[in-house]
Structure formats: structure tokens, C-alpha cells
């Protein structure tokens, strides 16, 4: 369990989290059970291990094979009210607006539509660079041709989309 | 119904997919009726042509995607996620950056990931530093940001070690590539001469250029490992423009031909024409498998035995 915690807490790659097959290699075939035990310990600290599929729809296949392809990561169980990121406020606003806009278009829309929507309030260079960065970080997904944006695996893992929309509508 | 109407509807399907517009804007039932009409009208005319069949397949595939989108659309609308997009757009436009950021933070459960410098990583950094040349020496070599060579890094493997481990070969990579290219030129020439002799009377597509079946070229090794190595080297030849792969969809065969400098010029001229007609280069995935390799060898051995018998009879 100690090894599992170290693997999941400390970043070994640019993208946070660990692939299922990496956990299996390090912890053995019973890695899912070890993660469950770790989860019960983390629960007391307000954290949890989450398993997320990196494909666009967020659901493909099932069982052991799927788990090996999925990414495992530790998340906070309660939303963060205080500042938990060094991100600039305008960058967070761009991400928030882009996610809400894409959700309103059923989870997928053209990149140009998102840029046109954001351009009303932000400078285009900031929009282009922010979108590219959020794609690299996994918050947004982009198709092979770079024309369509969708909700990235990381936003699916980290953002409670229902709460986000409720807060925007209620504002 | 005219084919251009079908093309128009096909484009409409693609627009719905890329722009994310309402998939119910397309009347699927009406579209299918039109397709049926088109099929009836052309059944006795040119329905058998490849273009017609491709258009038909394309249309059905696009329609299937639209139906999938319609299903997703209904699911979204019935889920708790659904909010009127117009209202949401308006709200987003009215909100200040701070409000947007606050809404995000309240719905954000961040991943916990920490970076820590370990002793091992520091040692690697130190080895990198030791191997890195000063700026003045690097600029002399006209190499602004070099990576330290493996031999220079403390504790790393030298080229000789890699050769001993069979990771690197003692032979220069370019020499190996050159020999594969020579073999390709020779065998493609023999193959095309053979097919010309055999097919003088019919218009077989094998006889129209200096080429050989891809799998015949790749699988002709003593072991499957050799074939995989050859496929890897051949992909380099294609990447470097020294060989060309052509897929014949009707024959379901893949051919490879060497490109000589003269032909290359002709091919570049051709490629310019193709560019104008919006044809683009593409990657082709060709599968190799041990079972396939075994089948190929059995087939070749049967062919050789057959030829041996034939030659024996001719000789007698």
C-alpha cells in the first residue's frame, strides 16, 4: 500500500496519475485490491483514488483490460474553496467558460466556435495559448484534425460538471 | 434523384458532426427514402459502378453516425446536465472573469500530484551537467542545444556495449538501408519482367510498373524476425521517398516499387498535380503476423514445387 501511495502521489510523468498497467507492474496482479485498501485510508483524509478512461467518450470496454488502460489518480473528495492552484484568474475563467460552453453543446463542438465565443472577453493570443495548454494538460480534448474540442479526461475527473453549470445559471 | 443531391446531404451530415448542430435537422427517414429512390433509378443503369457503391456505403455510414448523434442528443436532454444552450451562452457572456473562476473552483476536485527531487534524480542531473559542453565549444560545433552522448554520461552504456547487447548493429544503418533498396530494385525489376511476360495478353495491373507485391518482398526472409526487420527498414525507404507503396483496392494487394532519381522527378511532378486535386500523402498501416508469414511460406513452397515439376516435364 505504501508503494501504491508513493506511485500515485508523486508525479513520474508530465501528466499526473498512473496508468493501470504501471500499477500492475509495480504492485502485481492484485493491484486493484491494493488500491481499494489505499482508498479506505485516504477516505479519512478527504481524498480518494479515481479511475478515469482517457478516451473521448470516457467509457470503453470493461474489466481488467480497461483498468490497465485507464489512468488512476488521487483527488480531493470535497471541492476546493481556497486557492489550490497557481493559475491566473483569467486563465481559470477561460477554462471555466470553455468547459461550460462545450457542455452546453453536448460535450463536443468546433474549436473555432469555442474561440469565437471566448474572443468577446479575452485577447485571441491568450485564448489560443490557453486552449493549447489545457489540451496538453488533459482538461480539453481535441480530435486528430484539431478542429473539434471535447471535454478532456482530466476535466471529467476533476470537475463536477453539474455543479459548474448550476453555479453559472444561478449567478 | 441526382447524385449531387446525395453529396449535398452527405456534406450536411458532416457539418452536423463537426459543428455540433441539432442532428434532428436531418430527416433520416426522408433521406433513406431518397436513397431507395436513387437505388431503384440506377439499378438497371450504372449502379454496379464502384463510385456508386462507394457513395452508397458512405451515405449509410454517415446516416448511422447521425442516428448515433440523435440518440446521444436525446440522452443529454433527458439527463440532469441539460440546460438551454442559449440561456447558458447568455449567462457566460454576462459573467465576470472572477465569477467564472469562482464557479470553476467550487466545482473543482483537483488531482493531488507532487514533485519531489530524489537523490537518484540529482545524480542524473549531475551526470548530465558533467557531460554538457560549455556554450563556447557547442557553438564551434554549430550545435546549439546538444544532448550529451550516451558514451559521455557517467554510468551509461557505450556503443560497443549496445552492439554486444544486440541493440545496435556494427553495420551502419545507411548501409543496411542501401542494401534493402538494391534488393527491392532488383526484385521489382524481375517481378515486373515476369508479370509482363506472363500477362502480355491481358491488362493486368501488375505489369504497368516496376513493382513487387509488398508481402512477397517483406516475407522473403529466413525467419519471421528478419521479415519484421525488413519491414522496419522498408518503412524508412518509403519515408525517405526512395520507395513507393501503392494499394490496389480492387485486387486487395499492396505493391512496393523503388523510386529512382529520374522517376522521383516524375513522381514529384505527378504529386504537384495531385496536390492541385487535393490528394494528400498518407500513412498506410500494413499488418504482419507470424501466422500470415507461415501461410505465405507454405504458398511459396507449393509454388516452387509446382514450378519444379513443370520444369522437369519440360526438360523431359
Could you explain how this protein is built, in words?
The complex is a heterodimer of chains A (171) and B (316). Chain A folds into 2 domains: 2-76; 89-170, MAGE homology domain, winged helix WH2 motif (Arc Repressor Mutant, subunit A, Orthogonal Bundle), CATH 1.10.10. Chain A is built from 9 helices and 6 strands; from the N terminus they run H-E-H-H-E-H-E-H-E-H-H-E-E-H-H. Chain A has helices spanning 2-9, 20-27, 31-44, 63-69, 89-104, 111-118, 124-137, 153-158, 161-170, and strands at 18-19, 47-52, 71-76, 108-110, 140-142, 148-151. Residues 198-207, 264-279 and 312-316 of chain B have low confidence and may be disordered. Helix content of chain B is 62%, strand content 4%. Chain B starts with a helix and ends with a helix. Classes of the chains: A alpha+beta (171), B mainly alpha (316). The interface between A and B is large, with 56 and 38 residues.
Q: Tell me the Rg of chain A in angstroms.
A: 17 Å
Mean pLDDT of chain B: 72
Strand % of chain B is: under 5%
Can you write the helix and strand succession of chain A as a string? Answer: HEHHEHEHEHHEEHH
Report the helical percentage of chain A: 40-55%
Could you state the oligomeric state of the chains shown?
A: heterodimer
